[in-house]
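Private note to self, pasted from the team thread so I don't lose it. Backbone tokens:
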């Protein structure tokens, strides 16, 4: 009787070594962790604790609905003070009011920190207007012509986030070109007021920027914002109010609400990993230590980038 062929050794070792990296487990902590991500929109749609700032910005842009052009804004403040979320909300409110009063206003938001170059920033602006343009192949003058053609039919509000990325890229900044166009209001967003000084004098004199400073959230404001997020992100009774208050104080002291989001998200992950039904003090402590260390590294890198920009200006 013939002996059966043995199973190849390679196959045996392979089957034994296979391991599952991802396991399905019952989720008793998170209802929807996305609400704790830094770029997520406010759960209620409207940014909390920025009512006065939003009213002030709206007042500066109100001429849009009368003359077709509002003031140019320079919105600045430390990272994590709600600049982006406030401006995006403001743009949505402009659109709603324009439709209500029967005025044609187009709004566009673009992040220059992602587009990096004036060309790609202009490309995103034109695309944001709903124009059908290819992702590459058009020269800048053709993009500008498409933009100017669109301007014949509507007023525009263009928000450029991380605008400092563009200011050292060219002799005549894109914002200077945009400002020279009729019926166009600009909202420039940056972390520091010093970034406005990067603009040439002729640009500053024609832009006539209205400065809008968003101060860091107070501990009470930070607590209200974190509670709103927690209510959406976690199941009931996962985290106690005194722990939220503690994290709010850390966030306020750092001047960055996103730090609070990160600490709570990390603490939830730690509790989940240990099979808990709720977040404990030690989970918060471990998460805070890790996230604060990461923030310090990011701050150091930001200072290094600022130093590089200063060196370039002095050349």
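Design output:
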């Amino acid at each position: 009787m013939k002996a059966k062929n043995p199973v190849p050794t390679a196959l045996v070792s392979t089957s034994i070594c296979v391991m599952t990296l991802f396991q399905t487990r019952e989720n008793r902590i998170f209802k929807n962790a996305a609400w704790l991500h830094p770029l997520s929109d406010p759960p209620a749609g409207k940014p909390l604790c920025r009512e006065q700032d939003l009213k002030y910005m709206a007042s500066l842009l109100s001429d849009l609905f009368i003359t077709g052009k509002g003031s140019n804004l320079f919105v600045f403040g430390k990272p994590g003070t709600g600049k982006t979320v406030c401006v995006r909300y403001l743009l949505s409110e402009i659109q709603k009011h324009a439709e209500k009063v029967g005025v044609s206003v187009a709004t566009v938001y673009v992040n220059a920190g992602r587009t990096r170059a004036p060309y790609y920033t202009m490309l995103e602006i034109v695309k944001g207007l709903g124009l059908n343009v290819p992702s590459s192949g058009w020269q800048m003058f053709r993009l500008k012509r498409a933009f100017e053609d669109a301007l014949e039919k509507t007023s525009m509000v263009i928000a450029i986030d991380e605008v400092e990325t563009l200011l050292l890229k060219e002799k005549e900044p894109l914002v200077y070109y945009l400002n020279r166009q009729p019926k166009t209001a600009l909202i420039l967003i940056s972390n520091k007021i010093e970034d406005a000084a990067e603009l040439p004098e002729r640009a500053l004199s024609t832009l006539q920027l209205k400065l809008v400073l968003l101060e860091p959230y107070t501990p009470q404001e930070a607590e209200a914002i974190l509670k709103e997020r927690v209510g959406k992100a976690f199941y009931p009774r996962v985290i106690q109010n005194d722990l939220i208050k503690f994290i709010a104080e850390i966030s306020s002291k750092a001047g960055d609400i996103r730090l609070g989001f990160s600490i709570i998200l990390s603490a939830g992950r730690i509790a989940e990993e240990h099979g808990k039904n709720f977040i404990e003090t030690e989970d918060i402590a471990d998460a805070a230590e890790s996230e604060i260390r990461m923030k310090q590294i990011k701050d150091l890198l930001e200072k290094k980038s600022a130093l590089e920009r200063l060196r370039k200006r002095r050349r």
